[in-house]
Design a protein that fits this description.
By secondary structure, this protein is of the alpha+beta class. It is built from 16 helices and 52 strands.
């Protein structure tokens, strides 16, 4: 059945993907004044190229939208040189190119490829003159948000907004014709998005509720607990652990690849319950940070449909060290584009997973073109985008229970030429290799077919790509050329054999091609986390790599690589050769430019039903890596001020870091500065753990955020998850490849190679955890409570706890004997208690009412220690010599920390105002205070 269109999609939409290898030198155009408002009317208005969307079936026209109705929309601008952007995106994504994986630096897109400042000024001037009330311009310069009335939009854009009622009873709006812009701007304005909210993106997910078990137990990732395994067995479905095994993730875990230092953006148009994610992770083991980014006000509250929960939980289980950013936006006219643009403009995530889409005809050519520019930007920046292929098989516009649209169609954004489309399979037996076929049953089918918007890109080659169903007719390709084909790859999708998730407080099974993007996103996160680097570091497309520091080289847009790999003699895919994806009989079949169906059969090699098949992750990741070594990647985050310069004559082997509760780091001597991060609102940073051996450090905030800098790789955090208390400490695994966080309630959270050996039992109302010290062997730790109780875990033996300290005293610190067979405890009254091999060398004399003990530092020789009082007095015991105390600090300052010179012949003191005082052989390298900072200083860490 043919659908009427608001404005034709247009065959001229197709992107010409030419392999151009000439080097590019791009310079930002100078800013220029905008034209006067009257100039916009001189040439008249012309339609925005690209055309509008087709009307969904069974909608009824209600009438014109009331002129006073407010409408939000986006004016999307073209990049300054679309051909140059296309060429650069191709070069950085194509193996063998001189620019392969030399991606744009973060924030560099606007300078090199975004619209010129003059173009932005001219569009804003027109919008103001036309009464369209321009809002903020996105950081990449591509989108100007606007809000106006329906009546003003009719005058300014030359189109009437009309109301329709859908088959489901929803009232929606759409323009009666393509919006128009001044002739002078038609080369600058690419699209006007959001005037229509008639066709809304759909989640490609299907939920099966399971009555019974709730979450219990815990394990290492991905290791299903008993309740999850029981549900999977009874529902004939799979746990994340089984999915990991089927797709050969386990060899990567054995190599220590868990998605470290990788951020995955999850595109969502619905909310989720953080408690569901927390319950799931309690079963599968701790995952990485989960944080929300709200776009256009977010998507509301509640549990959603289960799509968001499945996406987050699957990535968390399969790439447990990856950071997850959940971008939530409204399912509105421009909400989808704004979310994609937010992910691209921030350029924080290396991997993007989206399980939402819409068939190409219902989306329309102008918006498809606008999306393409955003995905092209992501490719230039090295971002991998995975999208579901849809759940209606070869007839993507068909909606079960809704419109019985039986035309052959494919799903956007999966059909975009800068996106990897993931189709669906039925996995009847786990692998490796899995027993599988194309998913096609009464509940849906894996999407796939031929695009009507895009020509076949040059990278889409290999056995089976050009087949009996290949055609250039739908996209208007020139003679002898073909249209883009999807999917590119596949993963499990059948809800009858789906993946177990935790949703609305209970276990459920989720299916649909929604499963594919998070599974593949996790795989790419493992590759990015263990991926070698290349030399580009300046962020300029034309810059030489000579002399530049190595920077992370993520997989990026991977279709050119995977088509090349799949075409080789040892393909890293398990093929899917059974079944087809004809979900609904096409009508009318004789009009299609294809041979008779079924549409489309699975075949050997590439097929329009399953792409290249499902991944053999261990082989694929090895093939995608461009080299042999994996230096730690740079930390992401906003720019930070440079550290103070060290004093002249500093010995190269010495230095220290100072940490303020705002998250600012000062570095002195050989303690290299690697950046710092302001604490989130309402929280403070609770501790810092230098990488053993130096070169980087971790910061931990009270709300569970962990930031990694320099050589410190990010292994996860508790941000966005419920905490039973605030984070009070962080300790590094002596191997330098993990860390532990400690909460005030005594809970220990382990990340990276740092194994969890347990947490404190309930401490009671009058006690809290105050410190954590790692066993030097790296296979255990000690916890200290404010009451003086020491709890030992793993290989760390318990040597005793403090006796009752009385109402006026509390435990304030613990220091491990360097031999690893004992420890010292310090109370606020200055009493030192020695346990195990740690000998007692004395305690502080009475400190007086105005002073208290605040810190203890062990002599590196292990035969003494120094104590510090809040007034700055240093007391030395055993072999530890006294080198002096702080001068009077004043009423507004107090001493807060002491750190030993690694040589053992000096120490540094830190005051609350940020003043550092050096004694003995500890050279003075500079100080952020006194008066240099309003932040409260929390700690000092030694670089040794």
């Amino acid at each position: 059945m043919t659908r009427p269109r608001v404005a034709g999609l247009g065959a001229a939409l197709a992107l010409q993907v030419a392999m151009l290898v000439a080097p590019m030198i791009l310079a930002p155009a100078p800013s220029a004044a905008a034209l006067s408002a009257s100039a916009w009317l001189a040439g008249g208005l012309v339609p925005v190229p690209g055309g509008g969307a087709a009307l969904p079936l069974n909608v009824k026209l209600v009438g014109s939208l009331a002129p006073s109705t407010p409408v939000g929309f986006d004016v999307v601008l073209r990049p300054r040189d679309p051909t140059a952007l296309e060429r650069y995106a191709e070069e950085v994504s194509t193996p063998g190119s001189d620019l392969y994986r030399h991606y744009l630096a973060r924030g560099a897109f606007a300078e090199h490829f975004g619209p010129t400042s003059r173009s932005v000024d001219e569009v804003e001037a027109w919008m103001r003159a036309a009464g369209l009330d321009p809002g903020p311009v996105s950081p990449n310069g591509l989108v100007i948000q606007a809000r106006s009335s329906a009546g003003q939009i009719r005058l300014a854009l030359g189109t009437e907004l009309v109301e329709y009622r859908t088959a489901g009873g929803r009232t929606a709006r759409a323009p009666a014709s393509s919006p128009e812009v001044p002739r002078e701007l038609v080369g600058i304005v690419q699209a006007v998005v959001g005037l229509s909210n008639l066709a809304r993106p759909r989640s490609a997910g299907i939920l099966r509720r399971i009555t019974g078990a709730t979450s219990d137990g815990s394990g290492s990732t991905p290791e299903a607990c008993a309740a999850e395994s029981s549900v999977a067995a009874s529902a004939n479905s799979y746990t994340a652990e089984q999915v990991a095994g089927s797709y050969s993730f386990r060899p990567l875990y054995a190599e220590g690849m868990f998605g470290q230092a990788t951020t995955v953006a999850v595109f969502e148009l619905e909310p989720y319950l953080a408690s569901d994610v927390a319950a799931y992770e309690s079963c599968n083991g701790e995952g990485g940070t989960v944080s929300n980014v709200y776009v256009d006000g977010g998507s509301g509250s509640g549990a959603g449909s289960g799509e968001a929960a499945m996406d987050i939980e699957t990535i968390s289980a399969l790439a447990p060290a990856a950071r997850i950013l959940v971008y939530e936006g409204p399912d509105s006219g421009q909400g989808s584009l704004d979310v994609y643009n937010a992910i691209a403009a921030s350029d924080t995530a290396q991997v993007v997973s989206t399980s939402w889409g819409l068939c190409e005809p219902e989306l329309g050519g102008a918006e498809i073109s606008a999306e393409a520019t955003i995905f092209e930007e992501m490719a230039a920046q090295g971002q991998t985008v995975l999208a579901s292929a849809g759940d209606a098989g070869s007839e993507d516009c068909y909606t079960p229970g809704g419109t019985a649209d039986s035309e052959l169609a494919v799903d956007d954004p999966g059909s975009q030429p800068w996106v990897t489309s993931v189709g669906g399979t039925t996995m009847t037996s786990p692998g490796p290799p899995p027993v599988q076929s194309v998913w096609n049953d009464q509940s849906g089918a894996g999407g796939g077919g031929v695009s009507e918007a895009w020509q076949m890109p040059s990278w889409q080659t290999g056995p089976g790509v050009v087949n009996a169903y290949s055609t250039g007719v739908p996209c208007g390709a020139p003679a002898g050329a073909y249209c883009r084909e999807v999917p590119d790859v596949s993963a499990l999708a059948d809800p009858d054999h789906g993946i177990v998730i935790f949703y609305e407080g209970s276990w459920a099974v989720f299916g649909g091609t929604s499963l594919g993007p998070p599974v593949w996103a996790a795989l790419v996160a493992l590759a990015d986390g263990g991926c070698p680097v290349v030399g580009q570091g300046s962020g300029s497309p034309a810059s030489s790599t000579a002399g530049q520091p190595a920077t992370p080289a993520p997989v990026g847009f991977m279709n050119p690589a995977i088509y090349r790999l799949a075409s080789g003699g040892d393909s890293p895919f398990d093929p899917v050769t059974e079944g087809d994806n004809q979900y609904f009989p096409p009508d009318p079949a004789p009009s299609y430019p294809y041979p008779p169906g079924p549409y489309f059969p699975a075949t050997s090699g590439y097929s329009l039903a399953a792409g290249w098949g499902t991944p053999v992750a261990s082989a694929l990741v090895a093939d995608l890596e461009p080299g042999e070594t994996c230096p730690p990647p740079e930390a992401t985050g906003p720019p930070v001020p440079p550290p103070p310069e060290p004093a002249a004559g500093v010995p190269p082997e010495q230095g220290y870091w100072v940490l303020a509760d705002g998250g600012r780091i000062w570095a002195y001597g050989n303690a290299g500065y690697a950046g710092s991060q302001p604490a989130p609102g309402g929280s403070h940073f609770a501790g810092m753990a230098p990488v053993p051996g130096g070169g980087g450090y971790w910061l931990a905030a009270s709300d569970g955020i962990v930031e990694a800098y320099g050589d410190a790789r990010f292994y996860g955090s508790m941000a966005g998850r419920a905490l039973t208390g605030s984070i009070v400490g962080i300790a590094a695994d002596p191997a330098g490849t993990g860390y532990w966080l400690l909460s005030s309630t005594g809970e220990v959270m382990a990340f990276g190679s740092a194994r969890s050996y347990g947490s404190a039992p309930p401490l009671g109302r009058s006690a809290s955890a105050v410190g954590i010290a790692a066993d030097p062997a790296g296979t255990g730790y000690w916890l200290l409570s404010s009451t003086g109780e020491v709890m030992a875990f793993g290989s760390a033996r318990s040597y005793g706890s403090a006796p009752p300290l009385g109402r006026s005293a509390s435990a304030v610190g613990i220091a491990a004997d360097p031999a690893g067979t004992g420890y010292w405890l310090l109370s606020s009254t200055g009493e030192v208690m020695a346990f195990g091999s740690a000998r007692s060398y004395g305690s502080a004399p009475p400190l007086g009412r105005s002073a208290s003990a605040v810190g203890i530092a062990a002599d590196p020789a292990g035969t003494g220690y120094w104590l510090l009082s809040s007034t700055g007095e240093v007391m030395a015991f055993g072999s530890a010599r006294s080198y002096g105390s702080a001068p009077p600090l004043g009423r507004s300052a107090s001493a807060v920390g002491i750190a030993a010179d690694p040589a053992g012949t000096g120490y540094w003191l830190l005051s609350s105002t940020g003043e550092v005082m050096a004694f003995g052989s500890a050279a003075f390298y500079g100080s952020p205070g006194p008066g240099g900072s309003s932040a409260r200083l929390l700690a000092i860490g030694v670089s040794g």
